[in-house]
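Hi U.,

Before I forget, here's the chain from the pilot set. I'm dumping it here mostly so it's searchable later in email.
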Amino acid sequence: MISPSALLTARRNGLKIRMDEIEEAITKVIAGPEKKSRVISENERKLTAFHEAGHAVVARALPNTDPVHQITIIPRGRAGGFTMILPKEDKYYGTKTSMRESIIHLLGGRVAEQLTLDDISTGASNDIQRATEIAKDMVTKYGFSEKLGPVNYSSSDEVFLGKDFSSRQNFSEGTAAEIDEEVRKIIDGCYEEAKQILTDHMHELEQVAAALLAIETLDGEQFEKLYSGEMTAEELTDHANMIEDQIREMNAAEAEEAEAADEEQEQEREVKEEEGKEDE
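Structure:
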């Protein structure tokens, strides 16, 4: 991470790598580079803000979910925005509760769209896919379904047909229907729980979305201040803009210092060259 951080520091003509550069380098590796040049309509910005705010608020309200590290509506890679949740400690096992909370968190964006915009978008397609995969694994791989019990239904044989592989299931059509029913039951239950969380925390959702529309990116500390009510979206925006002004001043001062150091090195080089010519 130090090399990409150093490149970011060099671009602003800085002398020292700051934590902001390291943070950006990590985010770039995880989610891709920022695409600030992409033109986005105000309606889509609002949709993305509420979608990501929904993920963040639901994650914060769930008792066993890891803390929110960053939320942004700046496009990166193929995503129009993202909510980054980082674990507090290493985890080697998943539990039924943690997997269920992951589904609730993933569905938070779609639920937020439905509650605030009276419409839903294609932006939740990846969230829905991941939520469905987790629910299916809970039922077929880990035996978390009380109805089907601790039986593994995930193993299947791959058969090559023409140009592609086709999977052949090792259970009856009746069992397949029960699996679909159990997966749907998990998804529906998680969706309703996400809906209840956001209904109960509508004020927090609106504050986070408003802040995202104003400054586009929130770190974990800023999000926590909004969620706890310590600061309003307007107060946070003013504070963030003040910090941004201070950073610009620091960058300008550091750039001047770097330029002065470069000039000093150039002068020293010229003096050495002159001394070399005199010695000759």
